[in-house]
C-alpha cells in the first residue's frame, strides 16, 4: 500500500534560524514558522488563528537559511512531517512534531512589507537565481519569475533527531 507524507506551508519565520554543524560538517538549521488563517465566528466577528510549525532544514538548505533568512521573512516550505519522542527530566514520555523541509522558496520580506525577492537578494548581496544550494549536487535551484528562489535538500534518514 502506498502512502504520502507531504507538507506545504507558506508563512513567516518566528525567529532567525539556529544553525548547528554536525560531525563531518553537515549543517542543520531549525526555525519556527507561523501560518495564519482568518475566519468569522458565530457572532460574525473576524478572527485570526496562528499555527506555529517547527521547521528543520539540512545541508545546503541550512546554509542558505543561515545566510539569507531572518525573523519575519516570508517563505514557502515543502517537506514531510516527522514526530520525535523523548523522556523529559521527570521521566514522562513527550512528543514533538516538526517539518523536515526538502524544498524552500524565499518569497521576499516580512508580511506586509513592500520587499520582493529581488530586493532581498540585493540587500543581502546574494544572487539566488544562479546559485545552487542542493546538497545532492544536482543543481536543483530555480528562479520563480525572478522574485523568489527555490532550493532543494535531501536529508539523511539515519541521523538521531
TrEMBL record:
Annotated spans, Disordered: 103-161
Pfam families cross-referenced by the UniProt entry: SSB (PF00436)
GO cellular component: nucleoid
Highest rank taxon of the organism: Bacteria
Coiled coil: none
Single annotated GO MF: single-stranded DNA binding
GO biological process: DNA replication
Compositional bias (Low complexity): 120-150
Keywords for the protein's UniProt record, in alphabetical order: DNA-binding
Subunit structure: Homotetramer.
NCBIfam families per UniProt: ssb
Cited PANTHER family: SINGLE-STRANDED DNA-BINDING PROTEIN (PTHR10302), SINGLE-STRANDED DNA-BINDING PROTEIN, MITOCHONDRIAL (PTHR10302:SF0)
Protein name in UniProt: Single-stranded DNA-binding protein
Naturally occurring in which organism (per UniProt): Pontibacter akesuensis
Amino acid at each position: 500500500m502506498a502512502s504520502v507524507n507531504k507538507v506545504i506551508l507558506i508563512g513567516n519565520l518566528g525567529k532567525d534560524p539556529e544553525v548547528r554543524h554536525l560531525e563531518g560538517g553537515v549543517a542543520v538549521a531549525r526555525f519556527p514558522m507561523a501560518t495564519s488563517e482568518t475566519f468569522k465566528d458565530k457572532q460574525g466577528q473576524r478572527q485570526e488563528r496562528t499555527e506555529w510549525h517547527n521547521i528543520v532544514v539540512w545541508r545546503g538548505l541550512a546554509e542558505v537559511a543561515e545566510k539569507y533568512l531572518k525573523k519575519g521573512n516570508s517563505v514557502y516550505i515543502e517537506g514531510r512531517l516527522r514526530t520525535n519522542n523523548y523522556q523529559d527530566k521527570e521521566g514522562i514520555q513527550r512528543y514533538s512534531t516538526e517539518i523536515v523541509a526538502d524544498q524552500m522558496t524565499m518569497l521576499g520580506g516580512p508580511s506586509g512589507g513592500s520587499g520582493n525577492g529581488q530586493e532581498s537578494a540585493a540587500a543581502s548581496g546574494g544572487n539566488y537565481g544562479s546559485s545552487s544550494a542542493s546538497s545532492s549536487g544536482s543543481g536543483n535551484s530555480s528562479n520563480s519569475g525572478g522574485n523568489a528562489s527555490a532550493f532543494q535538500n535531501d536529508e539523511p534518514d539515519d541521523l538521531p533527531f
